[in-house]
Design brief:
Blueprint: E1 6-7, E2 17-25, E3 29-32, E4 34-35, E5 49-52, E6 58-66, E7 72-76, E8 88-93, H1 95-115, E9 119-124, E10 128-134, H2 142-154, E11 159-165, H3 166-171, E12 185-186, E13 189-195, E14 199-202, E15 217-224, E16 229-236
Parallel strand pairs: 1-4
Antiparallel strand pairs: 2-3, 2-8, 3-7, 5-6, 5-8, 6-7, 9-10, 10-16, 11-13, 12-13, 13-14, 15-16
Helix pairs in contact: 1-2
Length: 239
């Protein structure tokens, strides 16, 4: 069995860098014993950033993925320098990009509650995100959804997480809001993300600590994606 990478981002989404030991170096990239880099999953893109070697050499990380063996791979460009197994490095994410992804992701959890219908798909971007809903009733207006989101954001509600046994999730399937994505199970446990008084759902992604950090948003598009699917796109206001 390959050595499992310690996923520091699961417990502290605000951790920007960490020292780590190189476990493996392959054609695609580098595996570390611990990381702050989030690997692409659940509609959230993988982190970018850099690995700083002991001699000061910078190795750009252009993406982060999970390979078939379940290892987190820090993907580097083919021409980039490579560390070797056993090296000590500093792994640092592109924080400005990550923080925007966190804001969008947390906003989409609010959108889940604002529409409150089964989610069939979604995507998180750096300045906007979208969710598809199996919507059978009346389609809420963009302006109405924008107002609902603004209200929760203005309340500056806390966003927290906790771990539960996978059996608890199986007994409460309503905690899985996205029909197309299975939440990750780590050591027989599943991570729940709660927005105070508004939403609770299984999620392995990174989030801001309070809704006020999301900032001003607008539901900018509402479109039909099939007989029942309705797609809503929400955008962050320009900084």
């Amino acid at each position: 069995m390959p050595e499992a990478t310690e996923e520091l981002f699961r417990e502290d989404a605000y951790l920007r860098e960490t020292t780590a030991r190189v476990v493996e170096v392959g054609d695609a990239g580098v595996v570390l014993d611990r990381t702050v880099f989030y690997p692409m999953a659940g509609g959230q893109p993988g982190d970018r950033g850099e690995l700083r070697l002991g001699d000061g050499t910078l190795v750009p990380v252009v993406d982060t993925r999970t390979d078939e063996a379940g290892q987190i791979v820090h993907i580097v460009a083919p021409e980039a320098p490579r560390p070797v197994a056993g090296d000590e490095v500093t792994a640092a994410i592109d924080w400005a990009r990550r923080y925007r992804l966190m804001r969008v992701h947390s906003c989409l959890h609010l959108l889940c509650r604002a529409v409150d219908e089964p989610v069939t798909g979604g995507q998180i971007g750096e300045d906007r995100g979208r969710l598809d809903f199996a919507l059978t009733g009346e389609v809420p207006a963009k302006e109405v959804l924008t107002e609902r989101l603004a209200g929760w954001i203005a309340q500056d509600l806390s966003i927290s997480h906790r771990w539960v046994e996978a059996a608890e999730l199986d007994a409460n399937p309503e905690l899985v809001r996205t029909m197309s994505v299975k939440p990750p199970r780590t050591g027989g446990k599943v991570r729940l993300v709660e927005i105070e008084g508004v939403d609770l759902q299984a999620c392995g992604g990174t989030h801001v600590a309070r809704t006020g950090e999301i900032g001003r948003v607008e539901v900018v598009k509402s479109e039909s994606k099939g007989k029942q699917n309705r797609r809503f796109t929400v955008a962050l206001a320009a900084d």
